[in-house]
Sequence to fold (622 residues):
Amino acid sequence: MKKILSILLCAVIVCSSAALLTGCGGDTVGKNGEVNVYSWGDYFANGQDDLKDTIKEFEKETLIKVNLTTYETNEEMYNKLKSSNDNYDIVIPSEYMISKLIREKMLLEINYDNIPNYKNINKRFKNLSCDPDGKYTVCYSWGVTAMVYDKTKVKEKPSDWNALWDKNLKGDILMINNSRDAMAIAMQILGINPGEKFTKADIDKASAKLKEQKPLLKKYVMDQVFTEMESSQAAIAPYYAGDIAMMMEENEDLDYVLPKDGSNLFYDAFCIPKSSKNKDNAESFINFMHKPETAAENCKYLRYGCPNDEAIKLLPDDIKKSELTVPSEDYLNKCYTFADVSDDIYAYMQEQFVKIKAE
Amino acid sequence: MKSRKLTIPYIFWMLVFTMIPIVIIGFSAFNDGKGNFTLEPFQKAFFYSGVFLKSLLIALISTAICLVLAYPLAYILTRMKQSSQKTVTMLLMIPMWMNFLLRIYAWVILLQKNGPLDLALSLLGIHGTYIGNTAAVVVGMVYEYLPFMVLPIYTVMSKIDPGLIEAARDLGSNNAAVLGKVIFPLSIPGVISGITMVFVPSASTFLVSQYLGGTDDIMIGDVIDNIFWTDQNTGAAISLLMMVLIFVFLVLMNLFGDEEAIA
Fold:
């Protein structure tokens, strides 16, 4: 009896998990085909925090089923596009990766007639430097790199990146665990412009600067920066401005600095890869995400910059006025966009950064 | 004949998911990215020998501590009533039902500044940092992998014929002699598979060190992960070296014990 009962229980567990996997979704969603979206994790408002679930809204309105898969790095996305047979209709890479994808002819030209909401996009975010003719991209979000610091530990408001090399904060500094951002910060201090083509010698100089910083660091972090800063475990860290806004909501001891000489302006844009089989659906997805109401919801969720002018008008005042989500035009003019570096230089940069960490 | 047919799916599985990937890794480790034979990835891999050694050292220390903790526990377990044995093994298993990352995260909260440990020790007047160093990584590893040491030892020990122990006592052995001359030699296969099951994953993991370690506690798994972004060949070379090292380790272990122990 006991055995039968346990087998039954197992069967219940297995079946219910199977039901969970297959059971969701309305009956009619999918009538108009599907769209395979390959995106950064947590990149669309998902129904939490009193926001709408923008993907569900899209499904409801168009009856196109969205298959969402996520990646954590541009490189992971690139390797998957390059080597797997999966078909993706939309990817949302960052600027330097877009250049690479265009160079390697891995993207389809977008038919902007199918995206009427493209008119809402700010001029600055059309004809991006990675896509100067404006054929392959529709910008989704952007931001700058900034610093977050703990007012109880850092007495004077820092002004530029040099604060991350402050010996008085030894053991309390976090550094970004990403070769591009870390090297760019070091280069800016050394007076090398990461927005222009740089050489291996420049990378060596930046590496030396980062090596000097390593003994002062608590840790190299990416996502861990949230808990570290929110629970007052560290004094200062460089990170993406939109995320700093989120951290500041969790811990009122935190404040931010936009480095006075400018910073890195980055953006991610919707692109349609060559392997796409549902190009029309992909275009209606992009169009829906740039409806002012949808774009505003996503922006409230992400707190990253929103390239959609109409959407910004719909944002609540506290976000609209926040320098972290909407930096001033003056500040943006001081910022640089990371240069489109060759594969060779990029691999060298990555290798040098791993070596700094491994030493 | 019938048994042959039954093995086909397994052979297929091994071929597709074990052999072919190993061949691919071997191929890209001796490759310059354009299809030409080269040893350059291994030259580059040599730079990381320090990280290599440190990873192995951390794994060895963790394995040793696991063994010291697990062996007496397994012994005590076998001497309990049947029903309590079940309860205790259950208690050992329960944490493993939780996500690996959550368990590590719990340690981060325990050890962090103003965390429970820090607060408790501050009350006694002791101040210090307990996270961001190698010791914290070892603590995390031991916690993570202890059940993998206890269970195989316990399984082997509980199968030892009680008649042998009785016989040893009848022939005049005291407790220490029974343990040293009967139980320990018979439990060696369990010890060996326990060591394998703890050492191999702890040498190659990187999550534990990412969360509990500081800037100097990078492990080889982390290097492989990072280098794979842009340089698959060096990544493959390091992975291959790691596999060879672990293989050598397993063969050495095997020399000490039973053949069946190799996992």
User: Anything to note?
Assistant: The interface with chain A takes residues 44, 47-48, 50-51, 108, 112-114, 129, 132, 210-211, 214-215, 218, 222-223, 226-227, 229-231, 234 of chain B (CB under 8 Å). The CA atoms of residues 78 and 194 of chain B lie 16 Å apart. The mean pLDDT of chain B is 89.
